[in-house]
Design a protein that fits this description.
globular, alpha+beta, homotetramer, 3-stranded antiparallel β-sheet, about 140 residues, 5-stranded antiparallel β-sheet, Thiol Ester Dehydrase, Chain A
Chain lengths: ~140, ~140, ~140, ~140
């Protein structure tokens, strides 16, 4: 398993008149978590796009347990529980507040596509090589 | 079953550099679909809040089938498949483009909460009375 | 002068915890107003991009007079006061609520750029031909 | 003069299909800059709201010089050039990329309002006391 954490401060634009973070904005937190997970491998999603690969989201699921609020410093935990196979990659996300209470959790599945044909392709070898050491024990 | 439709024109702010609508923005389309579904009952979500009730989203699931693009005029179909029981209401949403191709589908579950206590409460009677005629056959 | 109007319903995502529309979201209303102004000429901004031209915003100014609120049906009035010269076009925008109270007004200046070189170019002739009849009296 | 800096990483949600940050999103960067400027005084905007004061934006002006792009780590410089008088406060903002090129600059004016009456009030004394030392030379 590969786990990373990143922090996000909730600014005013993300709130709604209920006084909470608007439910549609959690997708951005999930995205930031995934991006930082890739960056911590010594790689960036920008590099992936520069290789002519895009990664559209094909499926999301999201449970809202407690509301995030203005000025909260949330912790986004991003988990890759299995080494991606073929063209599909699934991230799990959990979001905590400063009191370490679970606010939100969900999963996101993305595909690797060749940008100019929009055809499914396998995960780039360069990314797989960065990831494989986190899953070696599971392979034995 | 209660079904309504509403149209949304995709403006530039909703796109991302992939050239598609950013995945997190579909939550807004689902919201607009739900709001217009309630309005077509002769009622508004604003009325519900004025009664001291809020309806936070507690669960969403969303499948991205084809991308929506800039300037698309999408049709958001919002379905209430069962009459809500107690404090929970679940909407199904399907989004189509002008060629009537399915772009996206998902479900959203919201709770009815008393705003000042944040306690779960039953759906307001006034809303139930508007909805019940769409489900009477199913009850017989 | 060329004037058009379009209506926008304020959805929840646009509000913030002050109970008003977040100040940064007016830029979207201005954009929608400009887009519909172009569409009413029998032309779309999408057509302009298909010609290899992009129109980035280079300058905005915005005065917030009264707050827009959730579920308001606002009217966006978009004015082109002078026929654009060379590579620059300036729109004036005024936003009204249902009681016809002025909520917001501002100006936005965009450039016409050739997308693949990012060089300034003149307004496309096809667009100028659509616009010129609104300014002919001023030219005499 | 009071000057602070904060950094923001551009995530995908902020981009548009031009491949740049959508022009409406700079208002969020300005907001984050202002919030962090207040926090560095040992105070938060959340504290101000807890005192029953809100600070709506009444005027903005923004010049777009170079586009911010996906994954850029931008620096937001926030300047308070004069000690606020009465109910009004004006921030200047400049945004730089990692190569220290100026991307964007602008000003934002906000009012101090009593939240429950929406009446203009003077800047809270507690905030003024934090700020005054940055302007003392100017007062002599």
């Amino acid at each position: 398993m590969y786990i990373t954490e990143t922090n996000i401060r909730i600014h005013y634009a993300l709130t709604d008149q209920m006084g909470f973070v608007y439910y549609g904005n959690y997708a951005q937190f999930y995205e930031i978590g995934r991006t930082e997970a890739i960056r911590k491998l010594g790689y960036t999603y920008k590099d992936i796009e520069a290789m002519g690969i895009i990664m559209p989201v094909v499926e999301t699921q999201c449970s809202f347990i407690r509301p995030a609020k203005y000025d909260d410093l949330i912790t986004v935990k991003t988990f890759l529980q299995t080494l991606p196979k073929e063209h599909s990659i699934t991230f799990n996300t959990e979001i905590f507040n400063e009191a370490n209470k679970l606010l939100n959790k969900g999963t996101t599945t993305l595909f690797f596509l060749e940008a100019h044909t929009m055809k499914k392709i396998n995960m780039p070898k360069a990314l797989e090589e960065k990831l494989i050491r986190f899953f070696e024990r599971a392979l034995n």
